[in-house]
What does this fold into?
Amino acid sequence: MKLKICWPESRDGTCPGAIATLSTHLGVGWNKRKAGADCGQPRFARFWAGSNNGNANPDCLMTTASELSVAEYFARLASSYGAGEYYRKRRAAALTEIERRLGKIESLLDLGCGNGTYLSGFREAIDPKFLVGADLSFRMAQEASRRRVTSAIVVADATLLPFRSTSFRAIFCSHVLQFVADLARCVAEISRCLAPAGTFIIAGGEFGVGERLKTLLGEVRWGALRAELPRPRNARTRHSLGDYQNAAQRAGLSVEPQGVDFTVSCADLAEFYRVRWLPLCESSAQVTLGGVLDELVSERGSESFQMNESLLFCQQSRPTVTSS
It folds into this structure.
């Protein structure tokens, strides 16, 4: 397994820290040296020099979205994912609650960081000394690195994390776990990487975007829109908040649910669907989807309503065993 480490320049043009600092957190060998036994198996890494020779199929832009792997699927969204008022308001609500609970912390991993929108928020709100993003998609990681707010960006699988045990005071996942086939293994890996008394924060669950749009559009128009929304190849059935909570508890974490409210307009919701889904659709489907959303904005664009983002705060409740 090869992993790519992207170490972006800081805002003053220099590389933050030193390899020695980064390698205290990464369970990898900079000279292809085997990592410690606490990583479970050998894991290797190399610096990413910026060339696109990663995990995305170079032909993926010519492939139907439903035929793409998860990494290739999200590669199509790399430049726009997280943009718009709906995403901004949802993110702000979650960050406010996370900052209230955690305050300033030393280290944070955004697992499934995408193009780095949350990383920028964490840098501004919490400003961890060691802030790392990790994503399965090379192109998402490439976009995240351009924000220059992190200590490192890692391309990695969430079920086999390239970090030493007890590396992070907090690990964050936003709307990621529904794409993880082996949820138990993923959460066990996250628990391993948490420092004693560290916190794993899960954002996303039954947050109701589809249900809200169905109510606004009616059965017929919602059915026409939903039929055009592609999913990645072999995408799993979406996990529930209960599934996440059970997996966290089995991994030795205590769990506290918390919902956060935010207010959006119908126009915000339509924009969300344009950002999240239009880049994935075939041209004919884009016309259908765009038409339905145009009608929504024309009819009800100024109406506002409250949405809720589901958060789970999962606390490391037992000492983490590390190998010498």
Observations:
- The longest helix spans residues 85-102.
